């Protein structure tokens, strides 16, 4: 029981600290509604600016979604995206059921929460990140968020 209370308090603290961020939609057909995207830490969200994440630290990305599809074993992917190409985000755990309830039911609002390590090897700069949640047939929930990766010293 004590573990449950500690886990619940930790979840509430993490959720309270997360900031709602602006996000864009992915190109192509999507049978899913993304209701809200939150990132923690992201004090920049209050000024509607891209979140700044620090190398060597973790950032938590959460979103609420309602798919028009079902899935027994969903997959999650993140990409550095540009108009020319998408590059996979290195080190991401793609087993989405660890971070959202599975099976995923069509028409049921759910949440996804992932602690994203910002590796020290990532180049310091601004990025657009495309985040996908996919079922076995490739149907997806997808959104794009801008982020800025900085070093501890605050250099861009």
From TrEMBL:
Gene Ontology CC terms, in alphabetical order: extracellular region
Cellular location(s): Secreted
Record Gene3D superfamilies: 2.60.40.770
Domain MD-2-related lipid-recognition: 23-147
One Gene Ontology biological process: sterol transport
Domain of life: Eukaryota
InterPro entries for the chain: Ig_E-set, ML_dom, NPC2-like
GO-annotated molecular function: sterol binding
Keywords from the UniProt entry: Secreted, Signal
Nucleotide-binding in keyword set: no
Transmembrane segments: none
Signal peptide span: 1-18
Family membership: Belongs to the NPC2 family.
Name of the protein in its database record: MD-2-related lipid-recognition domain-containing protein
Lineage: Eukaryota, Metazoa, Ecdysozoa, Arthropoda, Hexapoda
